[in-house]
Write a structure and sequence with these properties.
12 helices; eight-stranded parallel β-barrel; TIM Barrel; 374 residues; alpha/beta
Length: 374
């Protein structure tokens, strides 16, 4: 009797082992890519319901676990109502977004552009429009018709990081938006800062631009840390755009790159490269900074970036592996038009055209392939 039971047990074990070998190995996607992120402008109030549906039916289903929402002035601020957009999200609108992310275990990170991107084309953004005294370059006038390049080298305006009153205003906004979004992290933007340490600024003239940039990053980081919130920023100002050949958009031409050694090491860097899968994630990890590789509209580049990040994590030693955090799709159109495009892509299948929707689909597909490959 005991003999028959033993034989039966061995046979069951062999059958289980055989089926285990035959079934494809399911990899732990949280170990391969801890951060699988999506970055987009926050919806307008009229589109909140549709965006919640997008969270439920597209982001969560495809294992996206981090959502960076570019809010800027698209919220009905109570601390500074003079800075809100004419059509802005209410508390109830935000609660719907927060609830959808909570229900789907998605880390929700709000963004307000700090330092740079205080204007666009020929128009000032709210902060400098309402508080012109914060302008780093007040002598540069906004053009009636914008063009690039231009004699003033105007891309976007910056606020002066050394103005004695600027942080009181912007930190009111940061605190309010982090509270209503129940956020444990905040994205401060800080990309493409061309105006910094202007020679005409009574506070910044003659100062090291890397020190100025690092000082502003650390000031924001320290403020967030008081309430145990983490800072995320774009990484382009920390890369030498000249020596690397990366250029003045994805890297710095105004000598801010050495700030990489001066900023706090608990900041998360969103390392964006859109036309080529640059290997700068290694550079950030070697500088002891957590990094998320960010893509935009090129499907082939996105797929390579996913594979690269997995390769970094597989080959790095444990202390460095944890710094390679994952990948993020960035969207630079409004949320409603992107969802329209993405709905079309879902119906037509993966395509190679350089569009945001095709890129996102390619990124998701590569994540799926990697997670299911033995």
């Amino acid at each position: 009797m005991k003999h028959r039971i033993l034989v039966k047990g061995i046979l069951i074990s062999l059958i289980f082992l055989l089926f285990s070998v035959m079934l494809p190995a399911q990899k732990n996607i949280d170990d391969l890519l801890p951060v699988r992120a999506f970055c987009i402008s926050a919806p307008k109030p009229v589109n909140v319901e549709r965006f919640v549906q997008f969270i439920n039916e597209d982001l969560a289903v495809n294992k996206i676990n981090t959502l960076v929402l570019r809010v800027d002035f698209n919220y009905q601020f109570k601390t500074h109502p003079e800075l809100q957009d004419s059509s802005a999200l209410s508390e109830e609108d935000v609660r719907q977004l927060v609830t959808a992310c909570k229900n789907n275990h998605i880390h929700l990170i709000p963004q307000i552009n700090l330092l740079g991107h205080q204007s666009w084309a020929g128009a000032l953004n709210k902060l400098l429009k309402v508080y012109p005294e914060f302008d780093e370059t007040p002598t540069v006038q906004m053009p009636v018709v914008y063009g690039w390049p231009n004699p003033d080298s105007l891309y976007c305006k910056s606020y002066c990081p050394l103005h004695p009153s600027v942080h009181k205003i912007v930190f009111d906004l940061v605190d309010e938006i982090c509270t209503i979004f129940e956020a444990t992290a905040f994205h401060a933007g800080m990309d493409e800062v061309f105006y910094l340490g202007d020679y005409r600024c009574p506070r910044c003239a003659g100062k090291d631009k890397a020190v100025l940039f690092a000082g502003e990053v650390n000031t924001i980081r320290n403020h967030l840390a008081e309430k145990k919130r983490k800072l995320w920023i774009w990484g382009d100002r920390l890369i030498d755009g000249k020596s690397t050949g990366i250029g003045e958009w994805e890297g710095s031409f105004n000598n801010t790159q050495s700030a990489v050694r001066l900023i706090s090491k608990d900041i998360v860097i969103c390392d964006w490269h859109y036309d080529k899968a640059e290997q700068t994630a290694v550079y950030f990890a070697n500088n002891k900074l957590a990094v998320v590789t960010s893509t935009w509209r090129n499907p082939a580049v996105a797929a390579t970036q996913v594979r690269d990040m997995v390769r970094y994590r597989r080959t790095a030693k444990p202390a460095v592996k944890k710094l390679y955090q994952g990948v993020m799709q960035t969207i630079w159109s409004n949320s409603n038009s992107f969802i329209d495009d993405y709905e079309s892509v879902k119906l037509s299948g993966i395509q190679t055209d350089t569009t945001q929707a095709n890129c996102f689909k390619a990124m998701l597909n590569e994540i799926k392939v990697i997670s299911e490959t033995p």
